[in-house]
Amino acid sequence: MAIAPEVPKERHALGLPMKRKEDPRLIQGRGRFVDDIVLPNMLYMALVHSPYPHARIVKIDKTAALAVPGVKAVLTAEDLAGAGLAWIPTFHGYDKQMVLAVGKVLYQYQEVAGVIATSREAAHDAAELVDVEYEPLDPVVDPFISKTDKTILRDDRENKTNHIYHWEVGHRAETDAALASSEVHIKERVVFQRCHPAPLEPCGVIADMNPATGRLTMYLTSQAPHAHRTVVSLVTGIPEDKIHIISPDLGGGFGNKVPVYPGYVVATVASVVLGVPVKWIETRTENLTTTGFARDYHMDVEIGATKAGKITALKVATVADHGAFDAAADPTKYPAGLFGIVTGSYDFPTAFTELDAYFTNKAPGGVAYRCSFRVTEASFAIERGMELLARELKMDPADLRMLNFVKKEQFPYPSPLGFIYDSGDYHLTLQKALDTVEYKALRQEQAEKRARGELMGIGISTFTEAVGAGPSKHFDIMGIKMFDSAEIRIHPTGSGIVRAGTKSQGQGHETTWAQIVAEELGLDPQNLLVEEGDTDTAPYGLGTYASRSTPVAGAALAMAARRVREKAHKIAAHVLEVADADIEWKDYKFQVKGVPEKSITMKEIAFAAYTNPVPGSEAGLEAVYYYDPPNLTFPHGAYIAVVDVDKETGETHVRRFLAVDDCGTVINPMIVEGQIHGGLTEGFAIAFMQEIIYDESGNNLNTNFTDYLVPTALETPSWETGSTCTPSPHHPIGAKGVGESPNVGSPAAFVNAVMDALSPLGITHIDMPLSRSKVWTAIQAAKK
Amino acid sequence: MNLEYKGQEVVPVPKDKVWAFINDPSKIASCVPDVISSNIRDPHNFDAVVGVAVGPVRGKFTFKISLDPQPDGSHMNMKISGGGFGSVVDLLATSEVKDNGDSTTTLDWSATASMRGPVATVGGRVIDTQAQRVISQTFANVKSQLSATATA
């Protein structure tokens, strides 16, 4: 089957703003999350965490904890070692991580013991009584101090260094030469702070090892249930057929529910040991302090250009803080993810980027928080860099971008760092954004305000993402290729069930997957049940993260539907008593060519598939498709933020924010708009409020929602959206994915706007989050 | 987080009485505010369970306290370590006892505390004043108990 976008003019289901099928359940409290599930004889687990960021464990005394009524077991690393589970491999398999502290703790709040009891209260009370004697060691919290190797944090590793890896791509010598000979040159250290996805539902599990059947069922907060099943099998040795993972409704994930966490492993061991189900649900503090954080990239950005503003070269050198273990969630061959997208939407003649990662006494992680692997970091670096270059050149930042964009006739565009961009029209998208906000009038207003001493700023971000991992020749996780899958079964009465290897965490797959299949088959999307997250029923897939669901599973769904349609074609010919060649699929039904009144609908064909099958052919109407994408997809957008900064308080008021997104073919514009609103709100939080800060002693200072702020409706700006559409040429329906674009593109727009506002004071850069106090301090310093 | 405190009390009793008082674990234990129970292990070591309320953090801390009188008979070092609900506090206090020559004694004290866990993070904004209160109250209690013996 040839893969080419099929874009009919009049849509049946695709592109329509259908209300989300999952919402009546979710908004009426009828969802079913892991913590809603209660099994007979179930026990509860609480974890003991280290108050020290770096210490040797001298002794663990379980006596007092075991004496608490209802406590059934207290597990430590020693107990796990018996099962071969004291350590587990990290995400990509290049490092290993402790499940419970083995001899030493490496970050504050690290898991030290698990207490299992008949009630959650008893488990937590007893966890406080586990007496752990520590011998404190000096913590290393700064990656630039870690780099010196004065204190080696991981004495379990063969190489006695805190340096984890060096990664580079591009043309070093050529880039250095081009930068050295450039007429204009900017260089800035841009830090993307440590932040956290903080899904409202924290992580959790019920591990249920049935001693009679030998089968382990895990109700798990998992964005990738099949991958987790395989990992559990590889790590525990339990045959994969004896593992059943069910990921029920999820209350957000944003990359946080991709890794395997110690709590899952300890609960599983506890269930095996005790022979009953064991539930573990994280507290908010546990979620913020121990599970996958995001970013913590310190990026030195250099751009060269001519005096006329034509860019000549880009170099980005990054120091990455990975915390205590190298548990960054990236595909095996991409230790720094897709950071190579750092040339962004611009046609750099040459570029080079390198990255060095270090251990510190901080929680491990580095998940793709609402972005394709490290694409947010890269987009922030280039969009800040272009803004600084515009300032250096005294050129309008919109003009600088227009001058240097990859042109639409250059697609497919080979970037200097190795990607082949599929499609786009960057000039059109930015022009649409400029026209919509009335950019010239805004600049005029800004000039008038500046004359009065008021601080108004306009910030632009024109990002390009690389999403939809990915083609099997490049992308795998622990060897498993990053394809995805779909299965469609059409029932005799024309309704059906659609299953995919992805797992919605709020993205609306129950609706959009039904729309894709309905569009391909001319069926009613309301009568196509979408099921995901159960490894016993769904086809094998790598899950939902990195904006891969629509580019990969969405394509698998369209292709599976086309397989159904191929079989339906034969049934149509049989029922209409004409040759296959005389039938065509037109206006969402099969017609005899040239005789439109002689036609048959898919619903009628479905009935025939079970009541009047083609002689010599199988009955039924179903198909499975495993889709291996030929390339990534490259959504892009042009975002404009307009802000006013109060000189006296440092407070930023985001007056306007426009997001013009191009995600190719849109499946459901209402869901896309919702995704953009959500992503912009998270981007706003990162730009202005959120950071996981460690003090010099290694204390995590943002352990709850009073210290790690989540924006409410009160402070969230009102969003304006717009769109352009350049379909992906290699995706069956031309879709590219959009859920992460607003989180990738918006931080730079916010920061560029604030820096633009502060430019009359000579301030060029402040690292996020741009809190009132930081901005105020910078204004005071600039006045001196 | 690391915090530092210091203060001074002038006690209306002679130096030897002050020195004897601060060498007695049971007397020192009785001066710590909000003590729920204490257990004297030996002449230099005792345990104390103290009620703590720092912002949203409320509960009991168990401290191990050891007294380390210096041979000069004028300096007393005190090490306090312990914690509760996943938090750890390590405190080092030093006091110097000076005879003022008029049957009064000056007690100069300083302390450095390092705190980790929820007490440092959740209570970060309020812990400083709380710790200041506990430590200065302890020395103020030393003064008032000794003053009571002077008037008795």
Please specify the SSE layout and strand pairing.
The complex is a heterodimer of chains A (784) and B (152).
Chain A: H1 23-27, E1 43-49, E2 55-61, H2 63-66, E3 71-76, H3 77-82, E4 87-89, E5 96-98, E6 104-105, E7 111-117, H4 120-129, E8 131-136, H5 143-146, E9 163-170, H6 172-180, E10 184-195, E11 204-210, E12 215-220, H7 225-236, E13 243-246, H8 262-274, E14 278-281, H9 284-290, E15 293-305, E16 311-323, E17 351-359, E18 365-367, H10 375-393, H11 397-404, E19 413-414, E20 420-421, H12 426-437, H13 439-451, E21 455-461, E22 476-477, E23 480-481, E24 484-490, E25 496-500, H14 509-521, E26 528-531, H15 549-576, E27 583-586, E28 589-592, E29 595-600, H16 602-611, E30 622-627, E31 636-645, E32 652-662, H17 669-688, E33 720-723, H18 741-758, H19 772-783
Parallel strand pairs in A: 1-14, 12-13, 15-18, 16-17, 25-26, 32-33
Antiparallel strand pairs in A: 1-7, 2-6, 2-8, 3-7, 4-5, 9-17, 10-15, 11-12, 11-14, 15-16, 19-20, 21-31, 22-23, 24-25, 24-30, 27-28, 28-29, 31-32
Helix pairs in contact in A: 10-18, 14-15, 15-16, 17-18
Chain B: E1 2-11, H1 15-22, H2 25-31, E2 35-42, E3 45-54, E4 57-69, E5 75-84, E6 87-99, E7 105-116, H3 118-121, H4 127-151
Antiparallel strand pairs in B: 1-7, 2-3, 3-4, 4-5, 5-6, 6-7
Helix pairs in contact in B: 2-4
Keywords:
heterodimer, A: alpha+beta, Aldehyde Oxidoreductase, domain 4, 6-stranded mixed β-sheet, 33 strands, 28% helix, globular, B: 152 residues, alpha+beta, 29% helix
